Amino acid sequence: MTERITPLRQRMIDDMKLRNMAALTQTAYVRSVKNFSAFFRRSPDKLNFEDVRTYQLHLVSRGLQPQTINQIICALRFFYAITLGKPEAKTQLPPARRADALPAVLSPEEVSRFLNAVADLKHRAAFATIYAAGLRVSEVSELAVGDIDSGRMVIHIRQGKGSKDRFVMLSE
């Protein structure tokens, strides 16, 4: 059974398409607004910022992580600010504060031991590139020889996260 799309939901979807948002982001945003609306059993355009605050407290009480809550709040901010034309949503709906966790940093000896443990030369080069340039595995797997500019000491990453191109410094 297909779900009927309301004019309000269609407007939000159209707003996201106009801004070239990724399909998965669109799906997550629509789901977030739908769940928010279902929580109160009312259309989301009939709910206010105080209702969002109540919902945010509910999400915290359920034990959701800050990054999950932030995705939901971003969806609601988009809905209120863009789809409903209430720009004050940006200030009225603050994101949850994330914990400042420090990343694990390997010592030079640990990095050397790890790279020396990789027998295949191609794999070792990929791991060294990932580590030295801070790349994602998907970005390294798409690299071509032409993407490495040793004259300028940069690597051209094509269609990385968010389908964006970028340059990263090439480690000596």
Structural key phrases:
about 170 residues; mainly alpha; DNA polymerase, domain 1; 2 domains; 3-stranded antiparallel β-sheet; 3 strands; about 5% strand; elongated
What is the strand tally?
Answer: 3
Give the total of domains.
Answer: 2
What is the helix/strand order?
HHHHHHHHEEE
Q: What gyration radius follows from the Cα positions, in whole Å?
A: 22 Å
What's the CATH class of the largest domain, please? Mainly Alpha
What structural class should be given to the helix and strand makeup?
Answer: mainly alpha
Biggest sheet features: 3 strands, antiparallel
- The CATH superfamily title of the largest domain: Tyrosine recombinase, N-terminal domain
Beta-strand content estimate: 5-15%
Helix share, percent: 40-55%
